[in-house]
Amino acid sequence: MCHYQHGQVNNVLKPMLQRDFVSVLPQRGLTHVAETILSFLDAKSLCSAESVCHEWYRVIQEGHIWRRLIERNVRTDSLWKGLSERRGWGQYLFKRGSQKDSYYHQLYPRIVADIEKIEDNWRRGNFHLDKIQCRSDNSKGVYCLQYDDEKIVSGLRDNTIKLWDRKTLENTKVLTGHTGSVLCLQYDNNVIITGSSDSTVRVWDVKTGEAINTLVHHCEAVLHLRFDNGLMVTCSKDRSIAVWDMISAREINMRRVLVGHRAAVNVVDFDDKYIVSASGDRTIKVWVTSSCEFVRTLNGHKRGIACLQYRDSLVVSGSSDNTIRLWDIESGACLRILEGHEELVRCIRFDNKRIVSGAYDGKIKVWDLQAALDQRSPPHNLCIQTLMKHTGRVFRLQFDEFQIVSSSHDDSILIWDFLNVSDMNENRNNLVV
Asked: Which residues of the chain have pLDDT under 50?
């Protein structure tokens, strides 16, 4: 068969093989199949699909494809999920008949614009700032904190744990019992667990504030602790790490003591695979979580390490050499050194996009994590913003897609809100990049 004949056959067969499946499927009682196929489209493709013909538009509208697209993003993206709760449109999701699909079509670009504005606020340093002045009676300073949508829990130099209402910023509860500064804490739905310079770990009922357990093991200050899924790890100025099995709030038993550091162990973190610790001896040590066997030491910092976070295969640490280092936990390789702080880097957190660090220079720095992991990125492009509103050393911070909450030696807690920003806030904030 010659080339011309091939072309003739193709011209005859091609129209026969083409089918408008989206229009045909509903005619055969298979509308749900057409809807399922269209539900895999992204927003740009969905707009194009609506313009194909009246039947495609009808299937998209009656199948609530725009609503399903938004629901998919809310299920898979924490930024979308958070916005759905904060902006109120989440109440119209995951149920049929609450709104016409045209509502969701109009909602989608508004959500995208909201997200772009939040990202721009992070880049430009535009925020609304709220301040809690803790008004400690004697020793001033807020050493540690954790927050959720309802409350902030803080540990203070004056030996107390104070709880604050997120909406009113009023103090709702004061927990007393420690005889030294509260240096570290973590809470979940049931308990608050705190560590102190009095060498004890105390367990409190998160709802009532009742003290329900005291663990006495370390012989010097408890500098940091983490608990999750029935396991707790504490570390101390006594150079040791204690691994605990949490049967219940009242029954917490010692599993193992890890030794190896030659100075105070300032911070620990762990997951199902590894326990990671950092010390004033300038090293990071890695241990197997299940067996507590030692794995390796990460060397590189020139002075003691004050803070650390570990997630997946990435470790990010901050030191009194004023630098932040990114490490591959499996190889022990240092992936990047971040420079910019002028004094000890005391606290550090990261998510999929950003690293946020706080230091004794009183500054909070926001870094581009993905750029930091790309060796081609020049060092001067890595710091997105430097935030300067604390008047003392920054001791602790936590952040999410919408905000940073930080505490300081200046006896304050600051809430940096990148979502609810007015034009006045944009022009008023004095920041240094």
From this structure: 427, 430-433
Which of 48-54's residues contact partners 24+ apart within 8 Å by CB, and which partners? 49/22, 52/22, 53/20, 53/23
Residues 289/241, Cβ–Cβ less than 8 Å: no
Nearest one of 209, 215, 154, 164 to 185, comparing CA atoms: 154
- For 246, residues 6+ apart whose C-beta sits below 8 A from its C-beta are 227, 230, 231, 232, 252
pLDDT tens-digit profile of 114-135?
Answer: 999 999 999 999 999 999 999 8
Tens of pLDDT, residue by residue over 164-189, are 999 999 999 999 999 999 999 999 99
Burial class from Cβ neighbours inside 10 Å (0-12, 13-18, 19+) for residue 54 reads exposed
Residue 262's nearest CA partner among 244, 246, 292, 282 is 282
Q: Residue 373 region, left (φ>0) first, then alpha (ψ -120 to 50), else beta?
A: alpha
Q: CB–CB of 188/226 below 8 Å?
A: no
- For residue 52 the two structure tokens come to 């194909």
Rounded Cα gap, residues 360 and 193, in angstroms: 26
The per-residue pLDDT for 17 is 59
From the CB of residue 62, how many other CB atoms can be counted at a distance below 10 Å? 13
State how far the Cα of 185 lies from the Cα of 265, in Å rounded to an integer. Answer: 16
Name every residue whose Cβ is closer than 8 Å to that of residue 343 and which is 6 or more positions away in sequence.
322, 359, 360, 361, 393
pLDDT of residue 356: 98
pLDDT score, position 143: 97
CB 76 within 8 A of CB 42: no
Report the C-alpha gap between 146 and 399 in whole angstroms: 10
Contacts of residue 367, Cβ cutoff 8 Å, sequence gap at least 6: 324, 338, 354, 355, 356, 357, 382, 383, 384
Task: Specify whether the CB–CB gap between 53 and 34 falls below 8 A.
Answer: no
Residue whose tokens read 């976070």 = 309
